[in-house]
Fold this protein.
Amino acid sequence: MSRTSFPCPACKVLLKPRKYVPAGKRLVCPYCDSRFSMPVELAWSQPPAIRKPAQPTGELETEHPAQASGKTESSPVFPSQAPTDISGLYRRFALILVAAILILSAGFGTALYIVAKDRAAFRSALAAKNAGVIPESPEHPSPSAINKTEEEKRHSDFRGKMIEGGVALGNHRFEEAVKDYEAALQLFPEDVEAAKGLSAARTSLEAQARAQKDEEKRQAEFTRLMNQGQEAMKKQLFADAAQAFDNALRLIPENPEAAKALRQASDAQEAREIALKKSADYESHMTAARGAMVGERYADARNEFLAALQLKPEDEAANNGRKLAETRLNEMQDQAKRRTEFNRFMDQGDRALRNRRYDEAERAYSKAVQLMPRDLDARNGLKEAQRGQEKVKQEFNRLTAQGDLAMQTSRFGDAARAYSQATKLVPDNDAANDKLQTAQKALDDLRNVQANYNRLMLQGETMMRVGHFTDASLAYAAALRLVPGDLEALAGLRSARAAMFGPPLMPVFP
């Protein structure tokens, strides 16, 4: 028998030669250079189907028992990952090695016994022929021939039982092997090889019974752990259930039921952890939102309520809290806008009050009071503006009356000054502005008359000095027309006429 793959006993690397290696052949590991024989237990099973290896990576050196004669052969192998259960592999290898030794011992002993028996019979026949003994005829066999025939039949039955026992032992049918070897020992009780075979069969049978017992124990423990996990799943103890299923899967790693149950328990535990974390986050956001509401931090409260709603979209408490926070936030924003407008009107009123623009100050303070009726500064400013407005009205009326009186007495300069001050107090008063324009126009006309008057008076004085008395008289007469009753112009006119005609007999009037 042979195999295409087997592990190295030293380094545990799985070796895969390209062709079958017969059992008992000496091999050399290309990885650790250890020498070993092909495992004997491989001879108990049928050779696996030949398959083409993928990519060869090395050569396996082999050493045949006939290597002493110089014959060697090697074959390439493929390394693979070492077995994971090292201790189990050692135990199985030791058990198989012991069984192989016993089987080989029994087989070789049986073969040697058969060869020895045949050689003894051949020698006895040859000696009888040389001695001239005539063999008996088949019709009348001698007692010795009968005994010989029975002996041969016993040997034949013995060989058959030994062969059947060896085959049964090699195929792991240990009970049949025990029966065959016991039958062989009944034929030849003193046969050593039969005794060895019986011992090997009984040892293997006991090992099989122990392995079966261990398997039953493992199966019982597996069932107990699976039941324990199922009970924990019913009680929603998912962590305990996952632990039980994991232990069961360690006992029987290939069991699909345990693997499926472990996945379900792990998924349930993960879902529970996610749900617990979500609940904790929800409570954290709700607590933060309530604190923000107490501290009037409505924007933060709204954000926290929204975060809680993301975790529990249908939660009524979080939804109501969000609505309340948004309402308070809108109110606060409106209040902030009102405060901004209020401050703007208060600044306008203060500037107008400082500049004594009481009408503007009254309008600004009135708007500020409308925004915040209970604000004392706005109400006091409005009262002060109103008092200042009353004073302005009184002063405006006084200045207007003063201007009117000056206009009546032709004191256009005084009238213009009075009207100008009145318009500064009340810039929008049309009547005061018209009176100011009238006074300024009269003042301008008066200034033009005065200039002409001065020019004519200077001309008259100049003409008097050069002796042009007629021109001087005309100049003084024109000055009197501009300023009737002016004493200086009248005196000049008299002087010019006196120089022209002599002293007048009577006063001359223009």
Summary: The chain has 14 helices and eight strands. The mean pLDDT is 77. The radius of gyration is 70 Å.
